[in-house]
């Protein structure tokens, strides 16, 4: 068995940047701006901001991220999520941010008809995707999965004005949406400090504020799912979010078969939708983060139908055979890397 970590590739103001966990956590000046890296939410964050007050803003970004992690992490003892999961069905008073992100998560469960379900956490545990160490990965029995799936139902999460409860035996996890929500909160923080140009790299979640300091669009590299240290292509954009989910991010192999961490809540098995990578581009990190996971589960046909219905995000889809599909809003701003080509540009009216 083996697993592979994630690598985010971003084309920023200074060119191609590879963000590894070995980066310094000190604030560094960067062409009238500041760059700050830190580890949080099981990944490495790098925030770049430009303009007056940028040094203070990037440090505040770390403080805010760590605050949210203490609320939303499923593994931090006494976090809001931990207390909800260990309350045996009783309501738990929680922070306003916890209420907000859970409300969004349940709404996205409804929008995607359960393809995103935050109550699938015990099934993830059964596969070993929530622990470190290769020896912990395993293939649970069908009987075990059936037993666990009885408690998987996001609709049973009860959210009040100040408290949350889940049925005894259910456990929830915000891994598919928390980083997107964090990115939105950091964007709001930066804008409140007067920052009009910034790049936030939160693992496979990239959020941009305004344009690059030179007035041109940001250039964001989309990872090639078949060669994760290479890029499939580059998206040029301003004030947008780019979030990718793929089967190369976290997985194990057994008997020649790959088992990825993105589970289908309907079956309890790793999603088998024909997709190997889903990139969602829009204005909200919370929304795009949830969609990238859900559409990976749904597959191309259902994902494209949702795109046509909603009309407020764009997609880059890569299938198992290497086919690349982009939605029409990216026709003029997605540039395939040499050796890659777009199989089809999807239109609103199919």
Notable characteristics:
ten-stranded mixed β-sheet, five-stranded antiparallel β-sheet, alpha+beta, T-fold, globular, single chain, 350 residues, disordered N terminus
Oligomer: single chain
Distance between the termini: 42 Å
Report the mean per-residue pLDDT as an integer: 90
| CATH-defined topology of the domain at 75-165 | T-fold
**Category from helices, strands and their pairing:** alpha+beta
Tally of helical segments: 8
Per CATH, the architecture of the domain at 75-165 is Orthogonal Bundle
Please tell me what the overall shape is: globular
β content, as a range? 25-35%
CATH level 1 name of the domain at 75-165: Mainly Alpha
Strand order in the sheet with the most strands = 3-4-5-9-10-13-16-17-18-20
Largest sheet at a glance?
10 strands, mixed
CATH superfamily of the domain at 75-165: ApbE-like superfamily
């Amino acid at each position: 068995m083996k697993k592979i970590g994630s690598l985010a590739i971003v084309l920023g103001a200074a060119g191609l940047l590879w963000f590894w966990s070995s980066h310094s956590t000190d604030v560094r000046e960067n062409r009238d701006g500041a760059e700050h890296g830190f580890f949080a939410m099981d990944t490495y964050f790098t925030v770049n901001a430009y303009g007056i007050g940028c040094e203070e803003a990037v440090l505040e970004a770390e403080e805010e991220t760590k605050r949210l992690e203490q609320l939303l992490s499923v593994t931090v003892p006494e976090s809001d999520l931990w207390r909800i999961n260990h309350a045996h069905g009783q309501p738990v008073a929680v922070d306003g941010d916890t209420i907000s992100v859970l409300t969004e998560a349940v709404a996205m469960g409804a929008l995607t008809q359960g393809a995103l379900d935050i109550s699938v956490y015990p099934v993830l545990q059964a596969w070993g995707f929530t622990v470190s160490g290769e020896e912990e990965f395993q293939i649970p029995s069908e009987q075990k999965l059936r037993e666990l799936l009885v408690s998987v139902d996001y609709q049973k999460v009860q959210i009040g004005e100040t408290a949350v409860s889940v049925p005894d035996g259910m456990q929830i996890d915000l891994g598919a949406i928390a980083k997107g929500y964090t990115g939105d909160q950091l964007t709001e923080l930066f804008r409140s400090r007067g920052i009009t140009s910034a790049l936030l790299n939160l693992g496979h979640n990239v959020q941009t504020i305004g344009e690059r300091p030179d007035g041109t669009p940001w250039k964001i590299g989309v990872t090639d799912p078949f060669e994760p240290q290479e890029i499939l292509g580059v998206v040029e954009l301003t004030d947008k979010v780019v979030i990718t989910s793929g089967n190369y991010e976290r997985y194990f192999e057994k008997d020649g078969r790959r088992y990825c961490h993105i589970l289908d809540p309907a079956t309890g098995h790793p999603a088998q939708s024909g997709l190997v990578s889903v990139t969602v581009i829009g204005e909200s990190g919370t929304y795009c983060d949830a969609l990238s996971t859900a559409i990976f589960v749904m597959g191309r046909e259902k994902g494209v139908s949702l795109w046509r219905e909603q009309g407020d995000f764009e997609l880059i889809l890569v299938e198992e055979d290497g086919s690349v599909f982009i939605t029409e809003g990216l026709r003029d701003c997605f540039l395939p890397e040499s050796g890659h080509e777009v199989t089809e540009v999807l239109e609103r009216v199919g």
